[in-house]
Amino acid sequence: MPLVRFRQSLLLVYLLALALLWGNAYLLLVNHPPAYTVDEQSYLRMAQGNFLVPVTHRYRVVVPLLASGLAHGTRGLANLISPANKPPFGFSFFLVNALLLAGAGLLAFRSAVAAGAATVPALLGMAALLTCGAATYVTGLVLVDSALVLVVALLYYALHTRSAVALLLAAALGPVVKESFLLFLPLLVLYGGFVPWWRRLLAVLCGLLLLAAVHWAVDAQITGASSSGGSLTNALSHSRSIVSNLGWLFSPRGLVICAGYTACLMWYCWRVAGAGGTLSGCGSGRCGPAPPCCCWRPCWRTCCSRAK
Known about the structure:
This protein has 308 residues and is an all-alpha fold.
């Protein structure tokens, strides 16, 4: 496929993803209750330049800064449509979240195609992802999770297509987008063997340094800011909820709510075991047919490392 047609096809998929998100999320935006949640209040303050918010939200600056820039940049145009005393922060968050999640949808489509799916099933999978309640929730409210979803989608795309640039970019940007991205770092270690270990380590260190720089810059802007010890205490308090969340997931109620995902996961594992581990391979087709070990072992022990 010529490069121009390839880019046009990607643009069409991206616009489709944006359209799928827009309808439901816009209804949530315009019917938003007058009172904002605690999370939304924090991110709105950050977009307005006030970083004196709970430490849980204080350093997630990417989406609030993008929304702030968009709100101030389009204030004149927004006043022509609906005069207001303040920039349209709510709509700016909606637009930023929609654009970022549409990018995640495009990456999900590309990952499915790289894994061997045909175009129509890949589009249906993307549509299922972007029309779920969680996507509507993240897009229509003043939240910052869309950036994390985009980086995680970039990580999975990198692993499917064996793209070193995408993998290193995800490793460098993930920590500053949201701290919970650190939970995905084992994927870089176990399945990123197509990139030399020192480059992966350097990318992660750059991401952590960027996160530390954000902490320093935000703390320098406010008085009475919590120290790094406060951030550590907050992280530890959040980690205590892991056990309770896992308990809920494997409870009868959690299994019923997540029955669809659990059934698909068990079906896939059964198919992989029945096929001798040949349903999952390198994703790019460059290493030839996937050996049985590709499903269960890290990349450095599979054909990917031997193909070099």
